[in-house]
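From the methods appendix. Each design record in this collection lists the tokenized structure first, followed by the designed amino acid sequence. Records were kept in a plain field format so they could be parsed without special tools. The example shown here is representative of the layout used throughout.

RECORD:
FOLD TOKENS (384 positions):
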């Protein structure tokens, strides 16, 4: 048998052992639930009743095998890049002139985020679109996340991940390509535009942090003020998870790796707070959310995924970004945790496309897949 080389691309299929499913259900049945004061609502975090209902559905109603089969319907592979395992979906378009596009998730997301957009992006003809807008889509799991598994060493920051993506696209035969992402996926996509600008067709982002001066000139408009207020509320009230994951990810990992209810609560809270929801939990399909949580649980990547925050905090990636010359498109969804303001984004980015939507939040590909697909198509249409 020929020994596998570090650059070999290996076919991959998700196959969670039955014993893990039995273990999950048993752990959920034995959950020791915390107390909760009367009328706490969401002020103290995700309420017990909300998590209990989700956990019971996960235990008795949710069918992992059906969703595993949905994931396995897409061609999947693994390869070793810079010493780490990288899992990815690679869906080639039937259109010969399709543009290669690497699409990257963030935390607490996974490749599950993009199941509703892969088909329309790769085969627009079959989804009522123009075949000239087709993409060859590559959807990697960030090292430390999901089926990439825990990273074997430290140092996996945004820069290193972007370098790994550039190498991955080279191995797949894509010299030029576009990038799309939100959350950490936005940071990684933007970093690609800094690292290999000559290879980038364009960079499309659904999240872009913009710094606002204390006394901007001209003064903020009402819309800009509302965006800044939302970002400031998030920084004041919603960053507790980030503080923990950027300082003590290993300590957190014991609880989340041992308790599926804990892992569920840690992630489900963000799918409520960061989405455009009329009521908690209605922005994203419940089973799709549980599939995403299940990926974290079965791969035991709560701790390794959190380490990305620790790496970023120690590599200067919270500071002002260097200017990117890559053509950049930004899709602004109103319930994003920190909606960007265009005039403060333009000095650091080559913004050639900017769209403001009236609905949607942080998980755009899950909440508003049609809007996101249309915007990605529109952005790259002028760059092919």
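DESIGN:
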């Amino acid at each position: 048998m020929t020994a596998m080389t570090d650059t070999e691309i290996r076919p991959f299929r998700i196959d969670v052992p039955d014993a893990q499913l039995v273990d999950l259900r048993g752990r959920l049945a034995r959950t020791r639930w915390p107390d909760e004061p009367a009328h706490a609502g969401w002020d103290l975090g995700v309420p017990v009743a909300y998590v209990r209902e989700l956990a019971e559905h996960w235990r008795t109603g949710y069918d992992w095998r059906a969703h595993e089969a949905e994931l396995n319907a897409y061609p999947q592979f693994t390869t070793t890049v810079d010493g780490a395992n990288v899992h990815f979906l690679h869906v080639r378009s039937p259109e010969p002139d399709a543009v290669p596009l690497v699409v990257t998730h963030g935390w607490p997301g996974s490749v599950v985020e993009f199941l509703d957009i892969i088909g329309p992006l790769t085969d627009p003809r079959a989804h009522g679109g123009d075949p000239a807008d087709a993409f060859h889509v590559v959807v990697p799991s960030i090292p430390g996340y999901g089926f990439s598994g825990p990273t074997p060493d430290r140092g996996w920051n945004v820069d290193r991940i972007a370098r790994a993506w550039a190498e991955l696209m080279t191995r797949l035969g894509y010299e030029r390509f576009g990038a799309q992402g939100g959350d950490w996926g936005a940071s990684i996509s933007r970093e690609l535009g800094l690292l290999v600008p000559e290879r980038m067709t364009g960079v499309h982002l659904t999240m872009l942090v913009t710094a606002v001066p204390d006394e901007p000139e001209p003064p903020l408009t009402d819309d800009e003020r509302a965006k800044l207020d939302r970002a400031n509320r998030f920084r004041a009230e919603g960053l507790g998870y980030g503080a923990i994951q950027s300082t003590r990810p290993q300590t957190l990992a014991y609880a989340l790796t041992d308790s599926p209810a804990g892992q569920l609560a840690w992630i489900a809270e963000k799918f409520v707070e960061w989405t455009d929801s009329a009521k908690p939990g209605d922005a994203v399909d419940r089973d799709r959310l549980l599939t995403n949580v299940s990926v974290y649980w079965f791969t035991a990547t709560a701790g390794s995924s959190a380490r990305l925050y620790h790496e970023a905090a120690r590599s200067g990636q919270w500071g002002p970004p260097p200017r990117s010359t890559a053509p950049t498109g930004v899709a602004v969804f109103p319930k994003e945790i920190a909606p960007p303001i265009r005039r403060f984004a333009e000095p650091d980015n080559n913004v050639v496309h900017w769209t403001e939507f009236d609905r949607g939040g942080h998980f755009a590909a899950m909440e508003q897949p049609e809007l996101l697909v249309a915007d990605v198509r529109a952005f790259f249409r002028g760059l092919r």
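APPENDIX NOTE: Strands lie at 10-11, 76-81, 84-91, 99-104, 135-140, 177-181, 200-205, 324-332, 349-356.
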